Amino acid sequence: MNEYLSKLTDQFSGSIEVLPAFRNECSWKINPDKFIGLVTSLRNHAEFPFEVLFDVTAVDKTPVNGTIEVVYHLFSHKINGFIRLKVAVSSETPILPTISHIWNSANWLEREVYDLFGVKFSDHPDLRRLMMPDEYEGFPLLKAHPLCPQGDCNDF
Protein backbone atom coordinates (compact mmCIF):
# COMPACT_ATOMS: atom_id res chain seq x y z
CA MET A 1 0.00 0.00 0.00
CA ASN A 2 1.45 3.37 -0.93
CA GLU A 3 2.05 6.10 1.63
CA TYR A 4 -1.03 8.10 0.59
CA LEU A 5 -3.35 5.15 1.11
CA SER A 6 -1.71 4.55 4.48
CA LYS A 7 -2.50 8.15 5.46
CA LEU A 8 -6.11 7.73 4.33
CA THR A 9 -6.39 4.47 6.24
CA ASP A 10 -5.18 6.23 9.38
CA GLN A 11 -7.54 9.17 8.79
CA PHE A 12 -10.64 6.97 8.45
CA SER A 13 -9.62 4.29 10.96
CA GLY A 14 -12.74 4.85 13.08
CA SER A 15 -15.08 4.19 10.15
CA ILE A 16 -13.42 1.26 8.40
CA GLU A 17 -12.06 -2.20 8.91
CA VAL A 18 -8.85 -2.68 6.93
CA LEU A 19 -8.86 -5.97 5.04
CA PRO A 20 -5.72 -7.88 4.07
CA ALA A 21 -4.01 -6.41 1.02
CA PHE A 22 -4.13 -8.36 -2.21
CA ARG A 23 -1.56 -7.47 -4.87
CA ASN A 24 -0.75 -4.38 -2.85
CA GLU A 25 -4.32 -3.08 -3.23
CA CYS A 26 -6.12 -1.40 -0.36
CA SER A 27 -9.46 -2.88 0.74
CA TRP A 28 -11.78 -1.52 3.41
CA LYS A 29 -14.91 -2.99 4.91
CA ILE A 30 -17.46 -0.30 5.77
CA ASN A 31 -20.51 -0.32 7.98
CA PRO A 32 -23.59 0.61 5.89
CA ASP A 33 -24.41 3.41 8.36
CA LYS A 34 -21.11 5.17 7.58
CA PHE A 35 -21.08 4.43 3.86
CA ILE A 36 -22.42 7.69 2.39
CA GLY A 37 -20.30 9.87 4.67
CA LEU A 38 -17.14 7.94 3.85
CA VAL A 39 -17.58 7.86 0.06
CA THR A 40 -18.46 11.56 0.04
CA SER A 41 -15.28 12.27 2.02
CA LEU A 42 -13.21 10.18 -0.39
CA ARG A 43 -14.73 11.87 -3.46
CA ASN A 44 -14.14 15.38 -2.09
CA HIS A 45 -10.91 14.76 -0.17
CA ALA A 46 -8.69 17.85 -0.23
CA GLU A 47 -5.37 16.00 -0.69
CA PHE A 48 -6.34 12.67 -2.25
CA PRO A 49 -9.66 12.88 -4.10
CA PHE A 50 -11.02 9.67 -5.61
CA GLU A 51 -12.50 11.10 -8.79
CA VAL A 52 -13.35 7.81 -10.49
CA LEU A 53 -15.81 5.10 -9.53
CA PHE A 54 -14.98 2.48 -12.12
CA ASP A 55 -16.89 -0.56 -10.90
CA VAL A 56 -19.65 -1.73 -8.60
CA THR A 57 -20.36 -5.42 -8.18
CA ALA A 58 -21.55 -7.80 -5.50
CA VAL A 59 -20.82 -11.17 -3.94
CA ASP A 60 -23.56 -13.40 -2.56
CA LYS A 61 -22.31 -14.56 0.84
CA THR A 62 -25.72 -15.76 1.98
CA PRO A 63 -24.61 -19.34 2.70
CA VAL A 64 -21.69 -18.10 4.82
CA ASN A 65 -23.16 -15.22 6.83
CA GLY A 66 -26.53 -14.21 5.36
CA THR A 67 -25.24 -11.12 3.55
CA ILE A 68 -24.67 -9.75 0.10
CA GLU A 69 -21.42 -7.82 -0.10
CA VAL A 70 -21.49 -4.83 -2.45
CA VAL A 71 -18.01 -4.00 -3.74
CA TYR A 72 -16.97 -0.57 -5.02
CA HIS A 73 -13.70 0.17 -6.84
CA LEU A 74 -12.41 3.75 -6.70
CA PHE A 75 -9.40 5.38 -8.34
CA SER A 76 -7.49 8.57 -7.56
CA HIS A 77 -5.49 10.19 -10.35
CA LYS A 78 -3.57 12.30 -7.87
CA ILE A 79 -2.07 9.36 -5.99
CA ASN A 80 -2.39 6.86 -8.84
CA GLY A 81 -4.06 4.47 -6.42
CA PHE A 82 -7.10 2.28 -6.00
CA ILE A 83 -9.36 1.57 -3.04
CA ARG A 84 -11.79 -1.31 -2.86
CA LEU A 85 -14.74 -0.70 -0.53
CA LYS A 86 -16.92 -3.57 0.70
CA VAL A 87 -20.31 -3.02 2.29
CA ALA A 88 -22.29 -6.01 3.57
CA VAL A 89 -26.09 -5.82 3.56
CA SER A 90 -28.57 -8.37 4.83
CA SER A 91 -29.74 -10.76 2.13
CA GLU A 92 -33.25 -10.48 3.64
CA THR A 93 -33.44 -6.71 2.97
CA PRO A 94 -30.57 -5.80 0.64
CA ILE A 95 -30.77 -2.00 0.57
CA LEU A 96 -28.03 0.64 0.29
CA PRO A 97 -28.28 4.34 -0.50
CA THR A 98 -27.38 5.27 -4.05
CA ILE A 99 -24.13 7.08 -4.79
CA SER A 100 -25.22 8.13 -8.27
CA HIS A 101 -25.36 11.75 -7.05
CA ILE A 102 -21.67 11.48 -6.05
CA TRP A 103 -20.38 9.66 -9.16
CA ASN A 104 -22.56 9.63 -12.29
CA SER A 105 -21.01 6.30 -13.28
CA ALA A 106 -22.83 4.65 -10.36
CA ASN A 107 -26.17 4.99 -12.13
CA TRP A 108 -25.88 2.02 -14.50
CA LEU A 109 -23.46 0.10 -12.28
CA GLU A 110 -26.03 0.09 -9.47
CA ARG A 111 -28.73 -0.93 -11.92
CA GLU A 112 -26.61 -3.92 -12.92
CA VAL A 113 -26.13 -4.98 -9.29
CA TYR A 114 -29.87 -4.61 -8.71
CA ASP A 115 -30.69 -6.63 -11.81
CA LEU A 116 -28.36 -9.53 -11.04
CA PHE A 117 -28.26 -9.60 -7.21
CA GLY A 118 -31.45 -7.81 -6.11
CA VAL A 119 -29.72 -5.10 -4.07
CA LYS A 120 -31.96 -2.02 -4.00
CA PHE A 121 -30.34 1.41 -4.01
CA SER A 122 -32.58 3.89 -2.21
CA ASP A 123 -33.16 7.23 -3.95
CA HIS A 124 -31.71 5.89 -7.21
CA PRO A 125 -33.03 8.02 -10.11
CA ASP A 126 -33.96 5.04 -12.36
CA LEU A 127 -33.65 1.68 -10.59
CA ARG A 128 -34.95 -0.90 -13.04
CA ARG A 129 -33.65 -3.98 -14.79
CA LEU A 130 -30.75 -3.42 -17.11
CA MET A 131 -30.06 -6.81 -18.76
CA MET A 132 -32.81 -9.20 -17.75
CA PRO A 133 -36.34 -8.86 -19.18
CA ASP A 134 -38.75 -6.80 -17.05
CA GLU A 135 -40.93 -9.85 -16.42
CA TYR A 136 -38.00 -12.02 -15.26
CA GLU A 137 -38.52 -13.34 -11.74
CA GLY A 138 -35.62 -13.46 -9.32
CA PHE A 139 -32.00 -12.41 -9.53
CA PRO A 140 -29.76 -14.79 -11.49
CA LEU A 141 -26.47 -14.32 -9.59
CA LEU A 142 -27.88 -15.21 -6.19
CA LYS A 143 -26.83 -18.66 -5.04
CA ALA A 144 -30.46 -19.53 -4.19
CA HIS A 145 -31.61 -18.75 -7.75
CA PRO A 146 -32.56 -21.93 -9.63
CA LEU A 147 -30.17 -23.00 -12.35
CA CYS A 148 -33.01 -23.44 -14.85
CA PRO A 149 -35.82 -21.13 -13.70
CA GLN A 150 -37.99 -21.87 -16.75
CA GLY A 151 -37.23 -25.59 -16.67
CA ASP A 152 -35.77 -25.62 -20.19
CA CYS A 153 -32.23 -26.86 -19.45
CA ASN A 154 -32.77 -30.06 -21.43
CA ASP A 155 -32.83 -28.01 -24.63
CA PHE A 156 -29.05 -27.60 -24.50
Task: Give a short overview.
With 156 residues, the protein is of the alpha/beta class.
Secondary structure blueprint with pairings:
Layout: H1 3-11, E1 16-22, E2 25-30, H2 35-43, E3 52-61, H3 62-65, E4 67-76, E5 81-90, E6 95-97, H4 106-117, E7 120-122
Parallel strand pairs: 2-5, 6-7
Antiparallel strand pairs: 1-2, 3-4, 4-5
Summary keywords:
five-stranded mixed sheet; elongated; 31% strand; Beta Polymerase, domain 2; alpha/beta; single chain
Name of the CATH homologous superfamily: NADH:ubiquinone oxidoreductase Nqo5 subunit
**What CATH architecture do you see?**
2-Layer Sandwich
For the biggest sheet, the summary is: 5 strands, mixed
User: What proportion of the residues is helical, as a percent range?
Assistant: 10-25%
Please report which band the strand proportion falls in: under 5%, 5-15%, 15-25%, 25-35%, 35-45% or over 45%. Answer: 25-35%
H and E string: HEEHEHEEEHE
Strand order of the largest sheet: 1-2-5-4-3
Number of structural domains: 1
Shape: elongated
Q: Can you identify the CATH class?
A: Alpha Beta
CATH fold-level name: Beta Polymerase, domain 2
Stretches where pLDDT is under 50 for at least 5 consecutive residues are none
Distance between termini? 47 Å
**Strand tally, please?**
7
Which class of secondary structure composition applies to the elements? alpha/beta
Radius of gyration computed on alpha carbons: 17 Å
Give me the number of helical elements.
Answer: 4
Mean pLDDT: 90
